[in-house]
Amino acid sequence: MQSPQANPLDALKGGFRRACVKRLVGDEPGAIEVLRDEIPKLVVAWAKSTTLGGPEKKAKLKELFDDESSRAEELAVAFDLFAGRFEARVASIVRQELEQAASRLDEVTVKLERGLRELPVQPEPEVVLAAQVESAPVETSLPAEPSEEVPQELPEEAEEVEEVDETEGGEEELDPPRGIGLRFDEIEEMIDEVLDFGES
Asked: Is the pTM of the predicted complex or chain greater than 0.70?
């Protein structure tokens, strides 16, 4: 909403701007609400503060509205360009981080494999029950080497990182604005009624 200290012209421009932006982003009910609830009051306040005659008031309102509609459309285009660049930048950063993480994971895997190969093979201890100890003769020889071998290399499962197509410059396709801009013709009848009401 506008501040109480705002002059009627600035408040009216702000109201037009809100309606145009809401329409451009696809908020049709919000744009209608601003046009229905705010704009008539702002037009009356502005009409009372100006010395322009009836036709000049309407021409000035059309000029103000067209300016704010153009600004809203420029803002939507700039936002789409920014969003496209932002998405490309985020994709680039994510790809870099994934590549670095994959590289670090490969290093850890190699070190782990090397460490496993360097470990001496330990025989598994035999579990001897108390009854077997009493009846079994004491052996002085070492147990035989186990036949299981530690695998020399662990199987590698390489996951491919999905390539993101980076297109630089103006070749990027941007999403179109979700709504359509407002035109003065769409609210001209309402403006005429408000001006007629304000002059009576």
From this structure: no
